[in-house]
Amino acid sequence: MALKIVKGSIDRMFDKNLQDLVRGIRNHKDDEAKYISQCIDEIKQELKQDNIAVKANAVIKLAYLQMVGYDISWAAFNIIEVMSSSKFTFKRIGYLAASQCFYEGTDVIMLTTNQIRKDLNSPNQYDTGVALTGLSCFVTPDLARDLANDIMTLMSHTKPYIRKKAVLIMYKVFLKYPESLRPAFPRLKEKLEDPDSGVQSAAVNVICELARRNPKNYLSLAPLFFKLMTSSTNNWVLIKIIKLFGALTPLEPRLGKKLIEPLTNLIHSTSAMSLLYECVNTVIAVLISLSSGMPNHSASIQLCVQKLRILIEDSDQNLKYLGLLAMSKILKTHPKSVQSHKDLILQCLDDKDESIRLRALDLLYGMVSKKNLMEIVKKLMIHVDKAEGTTYRDELLTKIIDICSQSNYQYITNFEWYISILVELTRLEGTRHGHLIAAQMLDVAIRVKAIRAFAVSQMAMLLDNAHLLAGNMQRNGICEVLYAAAWICGEFSEHLQEPNQTLEAMLKSKVTTLPGHIQAVYVQNAAKLYASILQQHEQAGDKKAAVEITQILIDKLPQFVQNADLEVQERASCILQLIKYIHKLQAKDIPVAEEVMALFTGELNPVAPKAQKKVPLPDGLDLDAWINDAPSESSSDDENTKKTIFHEEEQRSIRHRQPEMDEDELARRREVRKQEQANNPFYIKSSPSPQKNYQDASGVDHIPVVQIDLTVPLRVPGMPLSDQYLKLEEERRQQQRQDREKKKKKQKRDKKGKRRHDSLHTESDEDIAPVHQVDIITEEMPENALPSDDDDGKDPNDPYKALDIDLDKPLTDNEKLPVRMHRISEKKSPEIEAAPVEEKSKKPSKKAKKEKKDKEKRKSKEKGGKKHRKSYENPENEFAAPEEIIAPTLKGEAENEKPTEGSDLDFWLSKAPVQSKSQTESLKNEEASVIEEISETKEEEEAKSSKHKKKKHKKEKSKEEKKSQKKKRHSADDAPESVQNGSIDDELLPPMSSYFLLAESSFVKMTYDIQGNLQDGSQVVVSVIFENQSSGYLKSMDFNVLDSLNTKLIRPEGSSKHDGISVPFQLPPDVSNEARFVFIVESIVMPQKLKGTLTFIVKTDDGSSHEKLDFKLHFTCTSYMITTPCYSDAFSKLLESGELKMSAIKVDRISISFQLLLAKICFHHHFSVVERINSCASMYSRSIQGHHMCLLVKMGDNSISVDGKCSDSTLLGNLLDELKQTLTESC
Amino acid sequence: MSTEPEAVQAVRNLWWCGLSGRMIKAILVFNNHGKPRLSRFYQHFSEDMQQQIIRETFQLVSRRDENVCNFLEGGSLIGGSDYKLIYRHYATLYFLFCVDSSESELGILDLIQVFVETLDKCFENVCELDLIFHMDKVHCILQEVVMGGMVLETNMNEIVSQVEAQTKLEKAEAGFSAAPARAVSAVKNINLPEIPRNIKVSNLSPFV
Lengths: 1227, 208
Fold this sequence. Notes:
The structure holds two protein chains of two kinds. Chain A is α+β, with helices and mostly antiparallel strands.
């Protein structure tokens, strides 16, 4: 056996390890895939071996291959095997691989629950750490539910390293198992004030993230965060908090007012750019949330803009980028203050960095005015020409359109200019936004009536030149523009200069290469155009031309009839038949133009997208009511037969009707329909309101159209069309200004008094009169439309919705986290004993049982909760142990808080803002006093409910606290705080070891330490360090103890109670290693000694010999205690409850410092300091079975007295004896 | 100027729009040729998808000049999303974080620096080779900095001391038996191809 292991380890040396694999891959650059598949085969072989080291080696190689892109999910089970190794080295590898490839869909993940729980509760902090890290990557709802309580317990772990990880992972647990949020939240809140800054930061992190998603539930935490903000020096924490305030202020404007002062102070004082930036961001958010009526705040805005300008001007591109980003937020509410920095932003448009240009573009959107729009767009057009890369150019294109079309074309004074810009944009190659341009063209042409003639002429030109662009249009979507062009030319054909030419352009054979939906529009609009041409010819009496044009259509349309696109085919064949019919009529010399025109009469008005939704529901109409009687289910057969009959009938009638459809009939029907529509109150039609009545109010003729000589060629070589308009517009404005000036001069002569006011030379937006009185037709809305605008619903799939939970409500009994427990469920439901065997085969039944278990747990827990004040020895109570102290007190707290919470917040918020000139020092003090005032008022309320004693006690305490805090604040050391959590053993103290000598011989030395198992109230873990003191090799070590009735060693399944446990390692000379053994304990009130023996083989050069070593394991009462932090209010409640037995000891001749003494008690006896005042300290600890142990340690002259209170007097007595021994020894 | 293939577009959309509770969505390290040296996704993607993402981000990042800003918006490039790419370029390696708006941009930039400096400390003049051959250790270090997509620790000394404590623990576990393996490995390492030895962690002025 031993030989095999040695051989295995030698073999292993020549196995490929990770480095070899990497090296191999690098050496096989040509046939990498082949080499890797070879390696995977080897890995598969290695995974089949029993040796865990070999397996771990294989798994780490797999993790590498995963990164390179190979699927390794097939090895999931092996990964779990490696995870469950007892060695940290392998465990870490296992968890690493798991975190790389496990996810919710991994089916074997459910096998890991117990392993992870075991690791979480491991006495080695790094086992716990690695398990938490791994779990954070693949936590599933099931794992979250099963492990929530374990993780919650870890949040109070003694080691900050574990606490911070546990706090962070709670966020993941909340996401997967939202029910855990409420029970866990109070503890999470506590962690905001953890003495370790890492833990604090983690808690801030989690709460900020929760609050970001559902801010309103966290508003009550604002005072606490405010305190943190004014006291914390950790910039990471500050950034998070400040970001959080940004999310909270929109909900509570008063909070914003309170924040402005400290934030501006921070802005002035901080040197950290990131903090400055976040402060500015939050101030912006605050200012946005405050209504504009506030004075003073223009100063804050100015400060922000100023600071941002500094950022933007910085040579660091990152700061420049962020400055622009923040600027865009100010822009929304305070455009004026940003507009003054236009120069800077335009400058950024020329930056070589694309990200910065994009940000600058965003800003431009809000900076345009009637005055500068043309100028800015011109600049952008230059950029469009220069731009490399389609993405940036597309971005420019959309921005141009956004800027121009914003708020209903508010800033456009000259639509001819805009149309020409759009036409210029169509010359862009490779843009994806053809449809955007098309939509703009349609929108402008339809809504700006005065522009139609111009738009039509431009569109006709586009259609004529379509072939020029057709080559690259096909691919890149700019051809969408033709859709708009064709429609505009068809619909407003009366404005066409040369309709014949346009019609021909629309019927070119090249058109058939365009996408189907565009061809369909072409065909339809060719028909419209035809109708208008026909009418012109008939009116002119030119019959020959009329017949000619008909002939052209008859010739050209068939190419569309054969089109692959159904829509095109259908329209073409319909129209072709119609034209042929007209052709016949024309041959008979009958005038048809009137009737053909009638096909297309009527104006198409734009309808608002929300119009349908906004139609009010008429009185008496119930949309949910059945129109007919609800169909009875039994009559389904009848239904069927009826249906078929009906269906057939209809088909027949349609077939019958079709041939009858002729022109007259159509016209008649249309007339009837119009009549119907006119009488129908629900039909949406153009309303006769004065605004919308564009038809007669302003005909084309009344509009003072700008003098554009359309006979000049529209494209001047070397100068784009839009530039001409720009020039024209400038001239026009010049003219206007001059006119105005003349008028003014006249006025001046009349009234000299107003001179100063008038002589302001800046041209405001209002001064610029648009070229023509453009009436923008507003989109149609139904009459008396509902004014509701909140129709954008929330995403129902939002995972954060589940976390929208009211955290201020008191906890109810059934809201506790599921806690794992064996004994009670086994007692109550014997059938579960068989469960472990069945579990693997029957999954569904397992779940059902689990639920049942949970229920029972809850029930019994409620019971436990009720009894818990009466008797602590109640064995049923064990499982609830970790929560006992915290849960009831928090409950109490929550209940007290609830009614006062709202008013507390109000009180806090209504306080006058902190003085601006006060330094941070006084700021802190004031804040602290505010908080204390709050707590005092709370106490007063409590006092009414007959808790006089406590009130007194607490008040005194808080006063003392206040004093001492004030004293110590200057020295700024966190020593007094760190004492509070009993973690001082980490700092400034001489090294202490909790390991005691177990036994020693010339071969081996054993030292041991006993720790209670946090999770299981009946287990303790004995860690034994074996140290080889001989020159030989120690192997086959076997550890055995003689069980007592009370205490039993847990042996592997299948071994009898006399068998030993083999120690899982061998020891070379001078090497030591640690092994752990778990014991079950029934009663913990008495210390106990167990006899045991270690047998082993010593192998030296001379040969090997069997040796043994006897020892006595001493289970002290201390070893059953678990360091548990306790807060002073919970502690005082506990003392008051009056159910604790009391006892005291006194030790003389103490020479060590009080600090060291406390540290020793903390370290050796697993206590934590609740509170320390001068030479007096209260301490707390808890046994694994839930006994509370409170100590009051007082230091006199050379003596120390310890008063103890505990729910069990025997335990207390024994523990004090042990304590006494430690203290006498140490002095 | 070819438009992107649809597949890439689809990947992008999936990659950016996926809803998840991650503040840091992914951490990638790749070299100047786009070879992955470390990939850590805090949201599940299939291996193929991961490779596509690495390739795509490499393309985005590698065509940027040295002296431009270190932020790349997935959002405005692809269309309305909460995520940003924040990266730093050290000699042969790109370190890239994909984060959402809850993280401070400058903070993450500093975090990258902290991570790299920690690597530098733990490996004693870290170079690309260290990352290539000791992926597990790099992960181990990263785990002390970022956990499950959330910033865990920003203090370099704390990170280094935790990493060292774990290394010590591993060494104690391996004890005697690991020595020959180390020797063999040292022999194998003699003939390594030439690769720049140092990624030159300069001392940047921190933002935080």
